[in-house]
Amino acid sequence: MGLGAASAAWIFAVLAGTTLLLQHDYAECPVGPISGQWPKVQEVGLDPQKDTLLMFVHPRCPCTRASINELNRIMARGKGDLVAHALFVLPHNLPESWAETGKWFTARSIPGVTVQTDLDGKLASAFGAKTSGYVLLYNSRGQLLFQGGITSTRGHEGDNLGEDAILAYATGRNPGIHRTPVYGCLLPSQTEFSASE
What we know:
The protein is an alpha/beta fold. The chain contains five helices and five strands, in the order H-E-H-E-H-E-H-E-E-H. Strand 4 and strand 5 form a beta hairpin. The radius of gyration is 19 Å and the shape is globular.
């Protein structure tokens, strides 16, 4: 193979690899059917005075670190205008320590955020969450205001439409954005993992 052909093949390989990476970074992940009203669940409560934010987390998803850091920014900028719950999905056949990753402890350190496990994804199912980093925002009457992600791409921190929308709703403004794409790993089920992981 001549130098020109080798160079062309190398350029093609780089472009193909870059395209695959970009498709992965910008590929919107699935969500389930969403009700416009807070479902009847007992494991997590709706705040009667402030907006309530829920984030569903796969404990071992590397992309979700950025979402939790964005949650930290939202809570800091929101200055107490909302409460948040980070729900770490835990298959029943795994010990609770499986969920207690660095993301767990980071989320737990954020003022205004309650961290808990979601055994077998019961709450994720009730709220239609299928992807790690998925966020829902409800007002004090249980009406859904926002759903989606709070990163602009997979694992990317920085300004994004989801964060702006949540902060607008929390301060009584309507940003006109009710949904953004969510990027992350699919939430775990008890059949996907073993305790050795």
